[in-house]
Amino acid sequence: MRADSIRYLHDAGFEFKSVESPDLWTHLESHFSGAGRIGLHFDPLPADRMNALIAQGEEALLDALVRQHKATGQLAAVAETIDLPYVIGIDSAIGAAEATHGEVLALIDRPGTVGERLIHVLPTPASALPPTRQATIEGGVYLDGHTVGFYTLHPGHHADEGLYRATPTEIARLATDMETNADDIALITRRECDAMIARAQRALGGELI
Q1: Which of 45, 71, 119, 174 is most buried, by the most CB atoms less than 10 A from its CB?
Q2: Which pLDDT score is estimated for 207?
Q3: Which residues partner with 117 through β-bridges?
Q4: What is the arithmetic mean of pLDDT over 102-131?
């Protein structure tokens, strides 16, 4: 049970950060606002389902941390997949072996922001994006060395490695966003940015939106 797991971790020298902590709750809640973006994203969920998913994820995370400590005497990062009785989002992640190298496009997600990152996308019809009833919970020890809790959560059972299926509309939207914010992108040069946008445009066979 939750209280027993928290007590066990406390006796082992670790304090569990509950999702009731306002800053952690805000962080987790932000994961449910990414619908429409490329990547692993939740469908718009009513508040009661979002709350239940987070609570179930916390239970799974606590169980995983306790199991790891009992087995090894230490704590490190853990990942647990939970099953839900309803569809919660899209699991668009793919492994490198699933993508043909020539078909994959490199793009900058969240261009011009502190969270920008390089991603790779495989153009895919919207009808082929797989819905999922699973969520992966990640957590472990925080930087202070004695607090443990959530890191993140996302739909599906794949690790988020920045390689996704994406619809032509999603790719066009992101390429347009890159074009708009090209001068503020820090990860690549303007010339590299223009080349990425041009390749995406060719792959889509038309104008960006």
Answers
A1: 174
A2: 61
A3: 109
A4: 89
Long-range CB pairs of 71-79 (<8 Å, 24+ gap) are 75/12, 75/14, 75/140, 75/141, 75/148, 76/140, 76/141, 77/138, 77/139, 77/140, 77/141, 77/151, 78/138, 78/139, 78/140, 79/136, 79/137, 79/138, 79/159
pLDDT tens digit sequence for 151-176:
988 898 877 777 899 999 999 999 99
Lookup result for tokens 């999702």: 19
Give me the numbers of helices (H) and strands (E) for the chain, helices first please.
5, 10
Q: What b-and-e string marks burial along 25-34, b requiring 16 or more CB atoms within 10 Å of the CB?
A: eeebeebbee
Question: Is the pTM here over 0.85, yes or no?
Answer: no
